[in-house]
Amino acid sequence: MTSTRKPAPPFGRTLCAMITPFTEAGALDLDGAQNLAARLVTQGCDGLVLSGTTGESPTTTDTEKTALIAAVRAAVDDRTTLVAGVGTSDTRHTVERALAAGEAGANGVLVVTPYYSRPPQEAVAAHFLAVADASTLPVMVYDIPGRTGTRIEPDTMIRLAEHPRVVAVKDCSYDFLGTQRVLAHTELAYYAGCDEHVLPLYAVGAAGCVSTVANAVPGHIAAILDAFDRGDTAQAAELQLKATPLIGAMTEAGLPGTVTAKALLSRLGLPAGPVRAPLLPAGQEAADELLAHYERLAADPPALP
């Protein structure tokens, strides 16, 4: 068995950054969301992140977000943890969303760095602390400077870790050294938010992942972490590498992960529907490539231990 110290996983280990299904007319598809959530849980996810980046949070209303939490909670009962994306560029609005998420059935909240205004680090810390003070739910801090324009610096993250309700980080910082520094100095549960980092981050002490690719292959993502947990690091590496072509096609093909995930799920006959503007759907060539990568991976499933 591995000896790497693991932080307690407050939200589970294998989390999916779930898409938000829409009808062909563009309305929220709650039946589709319930069916997709049930599939993800059955096939290996012990946590779901709703209304994150992949869940099209910028283009769904507060009412839709609340309805989504309630519907998914009804579908999965207490079998899985629900983390609700509540982050906005407005601290007061974020606090309102966090309170509403708790009332709707979320177990925790995902709070992204305020975007566009590009606050300095003192203001970044104040934003997260205000949410943590106001809500009774544990907070997962979302560090994704490529989208927000502002990095949560390691010193700021270490400061945030002193708050008892700031318990986790979804890490899309692409600063592996900075992440290791925070892991070494805090008890924060880190979750890899970039699928190519699922195994590398887990190997240095992360709690798990929040995976976009898990929308399509939840069992494979879970199997990577399963292999590592039982000490089979060679198989864990093999499974991570086998997933790399699909990861690349879904996250590094010049299209947002929301677009590629919905394109692939639609090809698989799973609930997805269109993306909302300003996003545009994937073209046929991209969808064909996604399906081809998926089929190659699905044809070689992880061996049972």
Automatic annotation (TrEMBL):
The lineage of its organism: Bacteria, Bacillati, Actinomycetota, Actinomycetes, Kitasatosporales. Keywords: Amino-acid biosynthesis, Cytoplasm, Diaminopimelate biosynthesis, Lyase, Lysine biosynthesis, Schiff base. This is 4-hydroxy-tetrahydrodipicolinate synthase. Catalyzes the condensation of (S)-aspartate-beta-semialdehyde [(S)-ASA] and pyruvate to 4-hydroxy-tetrahydrodipicolinate (HTPA). SUPFAM superfamilies: Aldolase. Pfam families: DHDPS. One of its GO terms (molecular function) is 4-hydroxy-tetrahydrodipicolinate synthase activity. Transmembrane segments: none annotated. PANTHER family: 4-HYDROXY-2-OXOGLUTARATE ALDOLASE, MITOCHONDRIAL (PTHR12128:SF66), DIHYDRODIPICOLINATE SYNTHASE (PTHR12128). It is an enzyme of class 4 (lyase). The active site is at residues 142, 170. The record marks 53, 116 as: Part of a proton relay during catalysis. One of its GO terms (biological process) is lysine biosynthetic process via diaminopimelate. Belongs to the DapA family. Pathway: Amino-acid biosynthesis; L-lysine biosynthesis via DAP pathway; (S)-tetrahydrodipicolinate from L-aspartate: step 3/4. Homotetramer; dimer of dimers.
